């Protein structure tokens, strides 16, 4: 586009008549949403750039437009020389925007004669008005007879048809804030449960959330992780399919009639204080096979199966081969009913004003469907993990293959966009697990078990010549071989490819380092600081800006990033630029001296995560003190683990604090088996707890329901 003046850039183009969809790009960063117009002769389009980082842009995501502030579409007379379009985020359902201005067609500034705008499926309030060409137009938007803030909007009306895309109405408002609860589906307990939480339990949780003033339920991944039916399959982040749902979450009675033995078995399993994964999944699959015997595919199933065939067919074939029994149709039947049950649960939650937030794992199971059907998208010779941090002093090895990002980009990131659009059937928001992995990943050689043997990819490793320029008396034997025979990690550098040397993370703690001369130690410490905290900032920023926009544009879900651990300097800026909410944990401040009062608005705050000890384990005082501090923070969303909300009620049947922890990243493998200590029905009857939570949310300005 050509620079016109301080206010406008312009472009004149010949475009064939019809529907035209376009998007603006500023410094390589595209708008999140595309725009669509109908091309007519002599058409002038006047747009305003909408920054992805603007809070108003975040307020246009699915939780706001589909759940909290859902507007019904209306039809307007589409005649008129000028089309005015504007967004009005956070406008209560059923309320309207009006347009007035300095010409008779707009009421001549008489608010009683202002034009009521219609709300369209495109999310804009729209008005069609005849205004003579060359008019020096001034106008404003109104809500409930009140003008928007700021000066008049101005435009010299051109000849022909004109479309004015204004950005947002300027009605005065305080930044929207909400509260929610985080809990894995398997942790839910209901009176009708089968030893685990199920999708059918989500409505009971939504009832409780809505009654307490919460507006969001955050879940862990719900994908199928069945490898061999052992308890190790309880790990929810090793999905065997990026699409398939886990049979663990099926409510069997909703599928069909069950034998008499089911009820007694259900009652016994539901008494368990923790999830007995192996027993529950074995019996659920047994009963599903019995129910499948009466299954006759109907038109609805066939239409769904055809629509989902791109992932359903390879998944069903994979499961049939894994189990060495049954037919692929059984697994399609199972997925169909899981889809129906989760869809019904989400619909119910939305009717209660509660959005459901999902979780996007950073990896997939190495021998799962995605890696088998699209091996070109993965680096099977490497493993993904995380460097040593507060969670795990030896680092983490998740065993996932790393991504072949060059191939992902060459394919237009279609694997990611299809995956996210599938998620959007159920979720209004999602958490990107380990978003740092989209900047760089901690890559571990396939033959290694511990995360300490990893290095960053992509990276700018040192050559032997550069090491010498740093004043390092380098030799492979001394710096790359174990200094002590009994500790293979007692090295200073890794050399994954010839003449590419990566400093070993935490080398200062090795015996090899401690045996060096002090002057060499000092130079190595300077080199490590440069390598880990400065050398790659530009590279990693560009990596993220290549990948993340494609993910964000795939859906209108609200995106939150789990950005804990060793956070590169470039991460906060990129996330803010793209409108991705950060995760802020008071126990893990990202800057020295940072308090909850300092965290950004575009963030999620919590007292703990599923990878940490819960509130009752680390804080021995009144839980309300900590929860109130978080609720009063600037963060847009305050989401507490269910265990932390329950800490407000000393009269509940609590587990030992250490048994409330869902996962310990330092222990691999870990049995994911936490269950809430009371049923959801009982929780909904705890009037005192309900009032206490609602009061805390209300006094913090986060009450939505």
From TrEMBL:
The keyword ATP-binding does not apply. One of its GO terms (cellular component) is cytoplasm. It catalyses: Transfers a segment of a (1->4)-alpha-D-glucan to a new position in an acceptor, which may be glucose or a (1->4)-alpha-D-glucan. It comes from the Bacteria. Residues 74-178 form the CBM20 domain. Keywords: Carbohydrate metabolism, Cytoplasm, Glycosyltransferase, Transferase. It is found in: Cytoplasm. Its EC number is 2.4.1.25. It holds the Pfam family CBM_20. Transmembrane segments: none annotated. The keyword Glycosyltransferase applies. GO terms for biological process: carbohydrate metabolic process. One of its GO terms (molecular function) is 4-alpha-glucanotransferase activity. InterPro entries: Carb-bd-like_fold (IPR013784), CBM20 (IPR002044), GH (IPR017853), Glyco_hydro_77 (IPR003385), Ig-like_fold (IPR013783). Belongs to the disproportionating enzyme family. This is 4-alpha-glucanotransferase. It comes from Chitinophaga cymbidii.
């Amino acid at each position: 586009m050509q620079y016109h003046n301080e206010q406008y850039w312009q472009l004149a183009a010949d475009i064939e008549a019809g529907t035209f969809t376009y998007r603006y790009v500023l410094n390589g960063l595209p708008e999140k949403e595309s725009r669509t117009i109908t091309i007519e002769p002599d058409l002038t389009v006047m747009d305003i750039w909408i920054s992805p980082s603007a809070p108003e842009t975040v307020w246009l995501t699915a939780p706001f437009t589909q759940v909290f502030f859902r507007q019904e579409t209306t039809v307007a007379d589409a005649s008129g020389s000028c089309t005015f379009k504007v967004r009005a985020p956070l406008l209560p359902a059923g309320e309207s925007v009006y347009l007035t201005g300095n010409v008779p067609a707009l009421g001549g500034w008489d608010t009683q004669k202002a034009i009521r705008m219609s709300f369209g499926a495109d999310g804009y309030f729209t008005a069609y008005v005849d205004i003579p060409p060359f008019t020096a137009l001034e106008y404003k938007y109104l809500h409930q007879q009140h003008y928007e803030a700021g000066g008049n909007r101005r435009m010299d009306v051109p000849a022909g048809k004109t479309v004015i895309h204004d950005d947002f109405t300027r009605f005065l408002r305080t930044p929207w804030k909400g509260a929610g609860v985080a809990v894995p589906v398997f942790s839910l307990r209901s009176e009708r449960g089968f030893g685990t939480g199920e999708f059918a339990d989500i409505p009971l949780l939504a009832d409780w959330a809505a009654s307490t003033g919460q507006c969001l339920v955050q879940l862990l991944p719900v994908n199928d992780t069945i490898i061999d039916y052992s308890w190790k399959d309880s790990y929810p982040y090793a999905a065997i399919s990026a699409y398939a749902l886990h049979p663990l979450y099926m409510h069997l009675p909703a599928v069909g009639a069950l034998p008499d033995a089911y009820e007694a078995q259900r009652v016994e399993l539901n008494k368990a204080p923790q999830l007995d994964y192996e027993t529950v999944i074995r019996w659920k699959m047994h009963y599903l096979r019995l129910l499948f015997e009466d299954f006759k595919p109907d038109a609805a199933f066939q239409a769904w199966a055809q629509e989902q065939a791109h992932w359903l067919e390879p998944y069903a074939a994979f499961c049939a081969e894994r189990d060495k029994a049954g037919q692929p149709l059984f697994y399609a039947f199972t997925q169909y009913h899981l889809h129906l049950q989760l869809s019904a649960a989400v619909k119910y939650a939305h009717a209660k004003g509660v959005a459901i937030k999902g979780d996007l794992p950073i990896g997939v199971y190495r021998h799962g469907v995605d890696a088998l059907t699209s091996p070109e998208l993965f680096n099977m010779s490497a493993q993904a993990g995380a460097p040593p941090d507060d969670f795990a002093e030896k680092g983490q090895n998740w065993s996932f293959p790393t991504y072949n990002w060059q191939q992902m980009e060459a394919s237009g990131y279609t694997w990611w966009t299809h995956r996210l659009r599938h998620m959007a059937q159920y979720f209004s928001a999602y958490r990107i697990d380990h978003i740092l992995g989209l900047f760089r990943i901690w890559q571990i050689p396939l033959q290694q078990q511990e995360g300490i043997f990893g290095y960053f990819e992509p990276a700018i490793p040192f050559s032997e010549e550069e090491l010498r320029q740093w004043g390092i008396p380098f030799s492979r034997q001394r710096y790359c071989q174990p200094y002590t025979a009994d500790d293979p990690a007692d090295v200073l550098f890794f050399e994954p490819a010839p003449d590419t040397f990566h400093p070993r993370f935490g080398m200062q703690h090795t015996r090899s380092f401690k045996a060096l001369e002090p002057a060499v130690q000092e130079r190595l410490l300077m080199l490590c600081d440069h390598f880990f905290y400065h050398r790659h900032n530009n590279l990693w920023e560009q990596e993220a800006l290549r990948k993340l926009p494609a993910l964000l544009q795939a859906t209108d879900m609200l995106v939150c990033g789990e950005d804990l651990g060793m956070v590169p300097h470039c991460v906060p800026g990129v996330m803010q630029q793209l409108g991705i909410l950060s995760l802020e944990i008071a126990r893990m401040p990202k800057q020295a001296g940072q308090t909850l009062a300092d965290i950004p608005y575009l963030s999620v705050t919590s007292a703990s995560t599923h990878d940490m000890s819960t509130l009752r384990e680390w804080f021995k005082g009144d839980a309300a003190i900590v929860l109130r501090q978080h609720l009063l923070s600037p963060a847009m969303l305050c989401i507490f683990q269910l265990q932390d909300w329950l800490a407000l009620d000393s009269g509940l049947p609590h587990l030992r604090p250490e048994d409330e922890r869902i996962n310990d990243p330092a222990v691999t493998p870990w049995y994911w088996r936490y269950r809430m200590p009371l049923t959801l029905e009982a929780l909904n009857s705890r009037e005192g707890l309900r009032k206490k939570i609602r009061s805390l949310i209300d006094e913090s300005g986060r009450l939505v329901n």
